[in-house]
Please model this.
Amino acid sequence: MIRVLVLGQPDNASRIARALDSPSAGVHASFIQPRGYARLLATPPGPGPAVTMRVGFRIGATTQRGQAFDAYWSLLCRRLPHAVRCHYWLGTDVLNTLEEARAGTLRRGALTATRGDLHLAVAPWLTSELESVGLPAITALLPAPLQAPPAAPPMPPEFSVLSYLPAPRFEYYGGEAILEAARRMPHVRFDVVGGWGERARPATANVRWHGWVDDMAQRYAQAAVVVRIPRHDGFGNTVIEGLLNARHVIYTHEVPFVRRVWPATAEALVVALRELQDAHAEGRLAPNLSGRTYALEEFDEDTLVERLLALLRAHLSSAVGSKAGQTSSR
Model:
């Protein structure tokens, strides 16, 4: 039985632990909340191979909280010296690392010490970015229980745009560009979900704020296009869900069957939207069935869990072989 201890960013860390936990597959995974950190250090190591995984809490951060977690992680690694150490990078953690590297404040020694660990990134562009600061990483899409409709919804009779703009990160998610596009396209409805954006920024009458939405099926069915243009991202759920619903998607990263807009200016966004609007008006904008097929295959949760387990097992096997080689050489 492989024991996997998952620490870090609560939403994704707990999701990964739930996905990996499978007695039938020989894996016991558990998410360790901060209140359990001290108890974990005091608990005797269990038998068998183990993995310690940190999710979204980057190595070498200069913040007080980041340095505190690095110190705890070092204690945990000493407590479990034979466990495989895994770092799961999500998006903002990579961006902050890149920015500190450019500013010359990155604690490179802390990163260098983890080069022998297993580094996973939730998107291929994150893998490339980590390699640019000397961390070899493997792309491992995040397993998530995303709901796909049983059939692709037809294109709505009205051309409309759906976007996600959480109020605390309005600018980061391209909120200004999206609202400016709405001003320039007054006859197109823009539906916005996430947070309380209407309190953060005024908008024209064609922008509708829906706040937090538990069931997004209706929102996707009524949209022709999904727009997600953050400054930097992992693999955004609204992109994946948009594809699963056979919607056309505009994104800031390169993804199959998705239209990339970068830099994500209002001008570039309006150009892309008007092309799609014209196709819709002429009856040429069919559901994005190729994108749906790609998403159904690429983001199937069971498949992603199997891939992640294969990576963990391969690294465990490699670590065991390395230790055996060191023992025999003595």
User: Anything to note?
Assistant: The chain has two domains: 2-144+302-329, 160-295.
